[in-house]
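Give me the fold.
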Amino acid sequence: MKTLIHLKQYTFALVLFISAFGCKPDKFVAIDRDPFIAYSMEASDMPVVTINPNVDGSKKIIIFASHPEDSIARFNVRNRSIELDVNSLKFLMVDGRDPVTIDEQGQLSRKVSTVVFEYTVKIPKETKGGQTFTGEFVITSGSGEERVIKVGFNLVSYFRAATLLTVYNGRVKNSMKEYLPTANCFITYQQTSASRPRPDNPSQNETVITGISTAVANPATAITTTNRPKVIAHLFNEIHSLDESRLYLVSPDEPWIADSLRVLNKFTGTYPTAQMNKVRYVDLGPINFLDMDDDDFNKADFEKDGKSKILLKVGNSYAFQTADGRTGVLFYKFVHIYSPEYSIGSPIAYFHIAATTQ
């Protein structure tokens, strides 16, 4: 397809683009553009899908296809690495007054110029984590031309919480160190659950684990009987000077935390060291937290590399393990320094967390 562009009617950025080819102002240039386009609308090349051992799940694969000079006539999936049942196939961005259907050979009931395919597969609860689904989604035009979109995702056995945690402890104010008793300097997580009818007896309900939830807590909240089992880290800010401080994750059962809270934070409660979780941390480095697979999640050697206090570096992920065997990963996303003119403020650390429900 040839498209004529008059330079006076377009942006400065386009003038620069065409000028790179030696064209002078007020000249015409022909640009080739393929009218047949098809692509996955997934934000990541290899996203992760959590397997819930209690309930069946699903994954939507969304493909955009358009050919305004011809049509979209067929949709097929081939070379699937694992066989997953198809829950549904929907056709979006088409005239609902004339619905589109598909036959067993992938032929559409009518040709369309633009369509979004919403292809949903079932993830059975018995599926094993660590597997990868890949497949080729083939879009065929009315004239028989094909576009092949390779799509995939990793099946993982951990849950990722949606909440972005904001944690802080300690700052420099008016050239003095200041730690607050109300600082949200503890990180917690717990399982989430839901009730559903029992498959074998719908008249009765059962509770199933659906994921994890996370929160931050100040010292008074963290030490309650209800919250102690949930606490998996204390954030300690080691302030060296007006311009230098270091943030650490610390196991909640470390004895010196009680003195730190009493002396620095002016916390007047009794810190129950013996009742707090023993946790070990391993620095996994700058892994891709959002798309980490089970191998990334499980590669930490806590026996060899586990530490009760670990220095934080922005962009790194930190595996953790409690004494009762719960494991997870904390992603230290970034740190924000609130800095008024008179001083450097409190470093606020932002975390994402993933964990198993075991």
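The chain has five helices and 24 strands.
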